[in-house]
Amino acid sequence: MKGVVVKSTGSWYLVRDAEGNLHRSRLRGKFKLKDLKVSNPLAVGDRVEFDVEDTGEDTAVIYKIEDRENYIIRQSTHKSAHAHIIAANLDQALLIVTLVSPRTSFGFIDRFLVTAEAYEIPTVLVFNKTDLYDEDIRNYQRQISQMYGQIGYSSISVSAAENQGMDALLALLHGKTSLLAGHSGVGKSTLINLLVPDLELKTSGISDFSDKGVHTTTFAEMFEVSKDTYIIDTPGIKELGIVDIPPAELSHYFPEMRERLNQCRFHNCTHFNEPGCAVLEAVRRNEISLTRYESYLSMLHGVDNRK
Ligand SMILES: Nc1nc2c(ncn2[C@@H]2O[C@H](COP(=O)(O)OP(=O)(O)OP(=O)(O)O)[C@@H](O)[C@H]2O)c(=O)[nH]1
Ligand SMILES: [Mg+2]
Ligand SMILES: [Zn+2]
């Protein structure tokens, strides 16, 4: 039988077949990892072939993984730790951003966007918890949305608490498989509970002490919103490392830099201090946002600006 992995715990998998039935499954014997250096052989979204066996707790055995159309990897910032495939076969990622409770930094947003560019996953920013924004934060959010809009990333604003903006979110999701990503506590599971009634995913408040989420969701899981519309809940990302990108290539994953690359004097320009650099010139003229350029530099130099 053929199916799609909708949940992966590392030791067992939930696979949805074509009729929508779920099978608790395990992987057959030793499974060869394709050259990817990752800790999990199988991820949510993987298309698999499996046999149903009526023995034991895990009733199905996965014996084949189909080639992935795409996938997105979460790289720990600690070099020693393994990379982890968050999900495969995605149409898009929605990065859930909150400007308060908890605050998502530009550094984090830009790291995610670079990762998504590297894996060619279109990304939309979803500002949540807008009910908590005062006038100043609301204006600030508009500026941020405009800045990202200019470089090709669209955004929407929602409030899960007040059920605001859900129509726009549904329209964005329609007919696609979307990954919800973001820090712990930004409201990923809360949003999915609104989109998929009766689901009752666990959610938790923000720690008063750190103003951060408490990592409530522990495994990625895919849910059906409506026919052909799927959404993947994921555990909150604390820190996001950057996939192995050579320094001279990093700017290829910043759309506003990518379009200027052939105007730099040196073809291998890293846009740091080289003479005749078109990117530096654009930063000087405010044509490239300073926060984006700062994110670029921190990634280039491996500086730790995660917040
Ligand atoms: N004020 C307000 N609170 C919200 C909103 N959306 C979610 N919350 C609250 O934020 C807290 C965290 O929400 P979760 O849905 O658990 O967050 P999460 O992103 O799934 O977090 P992890 O599973 O830890 O990654 C909960 O207390 C929610 O009730 C919102 O729009 N406004
Ligand atoms: Mg959650
Ligand atoms: Zn340059």
From TrEMBL:
Binding site for Zn(2+): 264, 269, 271, 277
Domain EngC GTPase: 88-238
Lineage: Bacteria, Pseudomonadati, Bacteroidota, Cytophagia, Cytophagales
Enzyme Commission identifier(s): 3.6.1.-
Entry protein name: Small ribosomal subunit biogenesis GTPase RsgA
Predominant subcellular localization, coarse grouping: cytoplasm
Originating species: Pontibacter saemangeumensis
InterPro entries: G_CP_dom (IPR030378), NA-bd_OB-fold (IPR012340), P-loop_NTPase (IPR027417), Ribosome_biogen_GTPase_RsgA (IPR004881), RsgA_GTPase_dom (IPR010914), RsgA_N (IPR031944)
Matches recorded under PANTHER family: SMALL RIBOSOMAL SUBUNIT BIOGENESIS GTPASE RSGA, SMALL RIBOSOMAL SUBUNIT BIOGENESIS GTPASE RSGA 1, MITOCHONDRIAL-RELATED
Heme recorded as keyword: no
Keyword Cell membrane: no
Keywords of the record: Cytoplasm, GTP-binding, Hydrolase, Metal-binding, Nucleotide-binding, Ribosome biogenesis, RNA-binding, rRNA-binding, Zinc
Taxonomic superkingdom: Bacteria
Quaternary structure (record): Monomer. Associates with 30S ribosomal subunit, binds 16S rRNA.
Positions that bind GTP: 128-131, 182-190
UniProt subcellular location: Cytoplasm
Cofactor binding: number and manner: Binds 1 zinc ion per subunit.
Known role: One of several proteins that assist in the late maturation steps of the functional core of the 30S ribosomal subunit. Helps release RbfA from mature subunits. May play a role in the assembly of ribosomal proteins into the subunit. Circularly permuted GTPase that catalyzes slow GTP hydrolysis, GTPase activity is stimulated by the 30S ribosomal subunit.
Needed cofactors: Zn(2+)
The CP-type G domain, residue ranges: 78-240
Recorded family membership: Belongs to the TRAFAC class YlqF/YawG GTPase family. RsgA subfamily.
